TrEMBL record:
InterPro entries referenced in this protein's UniProt entry, alphabetically: Phytyl_CoA_dOase-like
Keyword Transferase recorded: no
Cofactor(s) needed: Fe(2+)
Descriptive protein name: Phytanoyl-CoA dioxygenase
Keywords: Dioxygenase, Oxidoreductase
Transmembrane segments: none
Organism in which the protein naturally occurs: Luteibacter pinisoli
Single Gene Ontology MF annotation: iron ion binding
Protein origin, superkingdom: Bacteria
Length: 293
């Protein structure tokens, strides 16, 4: 007799009407490590984002852009079947609307602190036949396979990362929906082969427009696309204000974009938090401390 498969551990679903940021924080830190937000984006918005991602990545047929956690695909000469589109804020207003969606901002303010920033925003497109990734954890934990380079006793009791995946295509087992190991974020560790992530994983399933928020310390990876359709998502990394971001986002953007950015986008670009600064050249006077003691 076949072993009975346990029911899938599905990330709890919230809408704007049922949003409960305390419950979401608990789920991310102490629960499965992920939640789904539904109904944040219209069909037209998803279609607009998808068109740009397809157009930009069609041109990259040699997979020339940098990518991550794809060592096996690179060795097998198949890296062009997973394509990234970087610097999305410069490629359409829709991506600023996605990055600073009020509901995402509301969740991240509670999870990462009100002055949180964005460390990266990119698309990840897996073409039909495209490979998956190695199970991993995300920046700034992404090199935690060398834990001695991180502070002693660092742990996952509080977050240094919040990930958001906005699905542009159906995320199914066939198309390569992101795999994750529920609860693995509670003990901060980079997974290895002995952990058997592929035997223990669940999938982040959903329809175009569904948005998964997860704590990047949860073991996860893109999976192979065995279908005949593309599987793309917008992948955004949010960080506490004091973490050095993964991408130098302001440097990649036109000056005019930065000048005209909304208050939320300025915060996401890290412009509200001025450090590191050349203090020897900074305006004199007291710059930090309580206004009144
Ligand atoms: O595209 C996916 O399913 C996940 C991508 C991911 O986890 C990453 O690139 O860090
Ligand atoms: Fe990841």
């Amino acid at each position: 007799m076949n072993a009975v498969r346990q029911p899938a551990v599905v990330p709890p679903v919230f809408t704007e009407a049922t949003l409960d940021t305390d419950a979401i924080v608990r789920e991310l830190l102490e629960g499965v490590g992920a939640v789904t937000l539904r109904g944040l984006f219209s069909e037209a918005e998803i279609a607009e984002a998808r068109d740009i991602v397809m157009r930009e990545s069609n041109g990259d047929d040699r997979g020339a852009k940098v990518t991550h956690f794809q060592g096996d695909a690179e060795r097998a000469g198949r890296i062009n079947l997973q394509r990234r589109v970087w610097n999305l804020l410069a490629k359409g207003d829709i991506f600023s609307r996605m990055a600073a969606h009020p509901t995402i901002m509301q969740v991240m303010r509670v999870f990462l602190g009100s002055e949180f920033i964005m460390g990266s925003i990119a698309a990840n497109r897996i073409l039909p036949g495209g490979p998956g990734q190695e199970p991993h954890i995300d920046y700034p934990y992404w090199d935690f396979h060398s834990p001695e380079t991180h502070p002693t006793r660092i742990n996952a009791s509080f977050p240094l990362n919040g990930q958001v995946t906005i699905m542009l295509d159906p995320f199914t087992e066939d198309t390569g929906a992101t795999a994750y190991v529920p609860g693995s974020q509670r003990e901060l560790r980079y997974p290895d082969e002995k952990d058997g992530s592929f035997d223990r994983c669940e999938r982040m399933l959903g329809e175009p427009g569904d948005t998964v928020v997860f704590f990047g310390a949860v073991w996860h990876c893109a999976m192979p696309n065995r279908s005949s359709i593309d599987r793309s998502a917008i992948i955004t990394q949010y960080l506490p204000k004091f973490i050095k971001p993964m991408e130098d986002l302001p440097a990649a953007l036109p000056e005019a974009f930065v000048k005209q950015a909304s208050p939320d986008i300025r915060q996401l670009l890290g412009l509200n938090y001025p450090y590191p600064e050349v203090l020897d050249a900074a305006r004199g006077g007291n710059a930090e401390g309580r206004k009144r003691y």
